Amino acid sequence: MKKVNTHKVSIIMGSQSDYSTMQNCEKVFKILKIRFETKIISAHRTPKRMFEYAKTAEKNNISVIIAGAGGSAHLPGMVAAITRIPVIGVPIESKKLKGLDSLLSIAQMPKGIPVGTVAIGKDGAVNAALFAASIISNFDKKIKKNLENWRTKQTKSVKKKPN
Ligand code: RP5
Predict the structure, then answer these.
(1) Which of 16, 18, 120 to mutate to test the pocket of ligand 1 (most atoms within 8 A of CB)?
(2) What is the distance between the alpha carbons of residues 105 and 108, in angstroms, rounded to a whole number?
(3) What is the pLDDT of residues 42-94, one digit of tens each?
(4) What is the pTM of this model?
């Protein structure tokens, strides 16, 4: 019988406007062959949706949650408060404060409920996906291999001299 990879990552974001950043997570997961789902969930515009989502995340076999939010970015922290599944927050680059607001809102969680925080914008989204892959690779040999191969390829792509 073919062994099915059951580990799934959930990518959530506060708004459609976050998707141009968060789709970079999807690109990484497609390369590493990690199952994912993508949803819009806003802590302040759809609080009931957020609560229901976080409450059922464990039952839905989610291994890691990546939450992108901008401005007063409370989505990652609120979701982390409801579920024990690890949450990685991606600070979205906001128009007025260039994402510094998002970064501080996500990173400055008071003790007791952690949210792993990555860099602002696209780099953060890519690293959030790679970080999720690292977590999953602890207990999934196939993903471990895919991640190692990806890193080897990255290393080989760095030239010794600039041109
Ligand atoms: C946050 O408000 C979202 O995460 C988004 O980054 C920001 C702005 O949302 P829109 O006004 O573009 O929908 O909730």
Answers:
(1) 18
(2) 6
(3) 999 999 999 999 999 999 999 999 999 999 999 999 999 999 999 999 999 99
(4) 0.96
Interval 90-123: pLDDT, tens: 999 999 999 999 999 999 999 999 999 999 999 9
For the record, the structure tokens of 152 come out as: 């080897």
Taking CB atoms and a 6 Å cutoff, what residues make up the pocket around ligand 1? 13-15, 17-18, 42, 69-71, 92
C-alpha distance from residue 56 to each of 10, 25, 110 (Å): 12, 22, 24
Q: How far apart are CA 53 and CA 27, in angstroms?
A: 23
Phi, psi torsion values for 133, nearest 5 degrees? -60, -40
In the chain, DSSP finds a helix count (H) and a strand count (E) of 6, 5
Residue with tokens 């390369």, as numbered in its chain: 31
If you measure from the C-alpha of residue 13 to the centroid of ligand 1, how many angstroms do you get, rounded to a whole number? 9
